[in-house]
Write a structure and sequence with these properties.
5-stranded mixed beta sheet; Rossmann fold; ABC transporter transmembrane region fold; 754 residues; 52% helix; alpha/beta; single chain
């Protein structure tokens, strides 16, 4: 069967006597988390061992990373790949690579901190599976005697066998229910650990930002949510199916071979031939499944963008354009799904014929023995049941080909994501050894500091920021923005960065934040008495190198460096959480988990962290301090409007951009950093509010660097860094200049277009 992305398709491994296959209908569109279930115990064979495996919810395609050239600018970073012809086709992954990726994705959990629970639960699942197989063998013999009594018209024996049957049902059903429950709880626990594991790596070293800004891979959110769920459930289901198949082969082969050896040979030939034909007919299903989820995800991503940008689209009157774009994306998904349906139809012509034929094949082979009186009637039923068991084991590829092809796509997709996360970690650790990069260094303002060459250097306690020979390049194209920038910023030296659009002003802030490291030079933050902000590993690096390198965003923040972007980020949470973000985020989450009545069965979900550093931060503000800071930034009126600090809203929608910018300044005043970098952070405010906010951070003793085009910004700064393109016709290199604000003539106070 074929499905759209979230629709489960069930493939059956039947152990019951021959029955017509189920009608060919599309399953319900409601996703199901059940990976297997016991068949009805009332089947004539008495078998309870039917397993059914879902087609994974996420059968995805991923754009191959382009190594030769960057993607076109129109590609939506992190959300989709560009719609070029090259993206419509994809090379298949060879079996060896697929196996390596499966092991790489699956193995870490079984050697993790949860390995004891994982292995015990897995052993319980396998034990219950073994028990259910034994029960199925018992039902096979009960079925033989039951039908023999029926054929002999022996009512007393028939009644006895019927009672045995009912007693076996009562005793056997709990094993099947417990097997399914144990399997699904283990699958959920595995998925929970993998979600924590992948999300920790996704946020570590700002990988999420690099994926988004450089279009490194499509739909990482879907890989974490849908693909991990599909992987854990299906991997466990397939593992149990293979285990059950191996036990079945041992248990039922002796039965079948003992009844009639030629029937066993017919079974092997039939299953091997069916497998070969299925592989040939379904060879395109893996890639089609792989592509389908990408196209579905691109369509869904377009719908999300409409929701998030509804007001802008309405102002532009862009409804028709959005409609056509979305219909075009849906058409691509429709076209691919049409190909998928055709390929599946061709495969099902064969697989359904394969299923129907096995209804008469075993009976036809052993019927001559029955007619000659060599076997009883019940033996025919027993041979058919054993034949179906073993054929299901030998025909896994035939019966499960669509599930296998979909699962292969999930493995490939997660393996690609895992390789990307590993590559980012290794590049972070080896970057300074392999290439020249921008180093971000924290240096304490003690009387003397051990430098990298082993000599003692004096650190000026008044210096806040020092930049040495900074050359900045764009990450992907390598375009030079400026070269050899050298400057020093002392306490209360407020710097205004000026320049035309595209000259690299915001890019400079990205470099200062450690988001962009392409280029050369050193960015040195002078930190006052923050040795405690380093972990033991970082301290050892500091002793050997004479400096503490940037390890994480939290380390930067806890050293007193704060950033305020033009459009502040509004977290999902209460107004209180908006104000405490990001300085006291951990405190808020920890206080929510401190309830002694909350016993967390999955501790790894609450222990995830992207940094090993344990830093010192200001004491968390009280409720009265939060209310006071709202009044300071002239936002006191929103408290009655939203019923206090603990109300939940979509703050990015209910607050105007100007209110969001004032809220960002409230966060800044609460955090009390040493240095703050402002990227046009008052662009949506009127001049009186802008002047009020700058006066507040000036009064708080915070040194700041601003980017902006307004003339009014100059009176809040005493230095200006002017970045502009070189006027030399022989060179395309940018130039820079540092001036005192007083040296800028009035007519040149805002010489650059915004």
């Amino acid at each position: 069967m074929v499905q759209l992305s979230a629709t489960p398709t069930w493939c059956f491994l039947s152990t019951s006597p021959p029955q017509p296959p189920p009608p060919l209908t599309l399953p319900s569109s409601r996703p199901s988390r059940r990976l297997a279930s016991a068949s009805a115990p009332g089947s004539s064979s008495g078998s309870l061992a039917r397993l059914r495996l879902p087609l994974p919810q996420s059968v995805a395609s991923a754009m191959r990373r382009r190594r030769a050239a960057p993607p076109p600018p129109a590609a939506a970073a992190g959300g989709e790949a560009s719609g070029t012809d090259a993206d419509e086709k994809r090379d298949g992954t060879d079996l060896k690579t697929l196996a390596a990726r499966f092991w790489k994705v699956a193995a870490p959990y079984w050697w993790s901190e949860d390995k004891t629970q994982a292995r015990l639960r897995l052993a319980a699942v396998f034990t219950l599976t073994l028990a259910t197989t034994g029960i199925s063998v018992g039902f096979n013999f009960l079925g033989r005697d039951f039908y023999n009594a029926l054929a002999d018209k022996d009512q007393e024996k028939f009644t006895t066998q019927l009672l045995y049957y009912l007693g076996a049902f009562a005793g056997g059903i709990p094993f099947f229910v417990l097997r399914d429950y144990a399997r699904e709880t283990l699958s959920l626990r595995w998925r929970s650990w993998m979600t924590s594991y992948y999300m920790e790596r996704y946020f570590k070293n700002r990988t999420f930002y690099k994926i988004q800004s450089q279009s490194m891979i499509d739909n990482p959110d879907q890989r974490i949510n849908d693909d991990l769920s599909a992987f854990t459930g299906t991997a466990l289901g397939f593992s149990l199916t293979l285990f059950n198949a191996a036990v079945d082969l041992i248990s039922f082969s002796n039965i079948l071979y003992g009844i009639y050896p030629p029937l066993f040979i017919v079974l092997i030939v039939y299953s091997l031939g069916g497998t070969a034909i299925s592989v040939f007919l379904g060879k395109n299903l893996v890639n089609l499944n792989f592509m389908q989820e990408k196209k579905e995800a691109d369509f869904r991503y377009g719908l999300v963008r409409v929701r998030e940008n509804a007001e802008s689209i309405a102002f532009y009157g862009g409804e028709e354009n959005e409609l056509q774009l979305l219909l075009d994306r849906f058409r691509r998904a429709f076209d691919n799904l049409s190909e998928l349906l055709i390929a599946s139809r061709n495969l099902e012509f064969f697989t359904n014929g394969y299923r129907y034929l096995i209804q008469i094949l075993p009976a036809a082979v052993v019927a001559p023995m029955y007619f000659s009186g060599k076997i009883e009637f019940g033996v025919i039923n027993q041979s058919v049941s054993a034949f179906n068991h073993i054929l299901s084991d030998f025909s896994l590829i035939v019966f499960q080909f669509q599930s296998i092809s979909a699962f292969s796509a999930v493995i490939d997709r997660l393996g690609e994501f895992d390789d990307l996360l590993d590559g980012n970690e290794s590049s972070q650790s080896s970057q300074r050894e392999i290439i020249d990069g921008i180093n971000i260094i924290f240096k304490t303002s003690s009387p003397s500091v051990l430098s990298s060459n082993g000599s003692l250097t004096q650190s000026d306690p008044c210096v806040v920021l020092e930049i040495r020979n900074l050359t900045l390049l764009t990450p992907r194209s390598g375009n030079i923005l400026f070269t050899d920038l050298t400057m020093e910023l002392k306490d209360k030296d407020h710097l205004l960065v000026m320049g035309p659009s595209g000259s690299g002003k915001t890019s400079l802030l990205r470099a200062l934040a450690g988001l962009w490291t392409s280029g050369t030079g050193d960015i040195i933050y002078h930190v006052r008495g923050s040795e405690s902000n380093s972990s033991s590993d970082e301290l050892s690096n500091k002793k050997s190198e004479g400096e503490e390198l940037l390890q994480s965003s939290r380390q930067r923040r806890e050293n007193g460096i704060f950033f305020v972007p033009q459009r502040p980020y509004m977290v999902l949470g209460t107004l209180r959480q908006q104000l405490l973000y990001p300085t006291w985020t951990e405190n808020v989450h920890n206080s929510a988990n401190d309830n002694p009545q909350n016993t967390d069965p999955l501790p790894f979900l609450s222990e995830a962290s992207t940094s090993d550093a344990v830093g010192v931060k200001p004491e968390m503000p009280s409720t009265s301090e939060l209310i006071k800071v709202l009044e300071v930034v002239k936002l006191g009126y929103i408290l009655p409007r939203f019923n206090g600090l603990d109300s939940m809203h979509d703050w990015a929608s209910v607050l105007s951009l100007g209110e969001q910018q004032r809220l960002a300044f409230a966060r800044l005043l609460l955090a009390k950093p040493v240095l703050v970098l402002l990227d046009e952070s008052t662009s949506a405010l009127d001049e009186p509010n802008e002047a009020h906010l700058y006066s507040q951070i000036e009064a708080a003793g915070i040194t700041y660097i601003s980017i902006g085009h307004r003339k009014t910004l100059q009176k809040f700064h005493n230095k200006a860094l002017i970045i502009s393109k070189s006027d030399s016709p022989d060179s395309n290199l940018p130039s820079w200049e540092i001036k005192s604000i007083g040296q800028i003539p009035v007519e040149e106070s805002s010489p650059f277009p915004s």
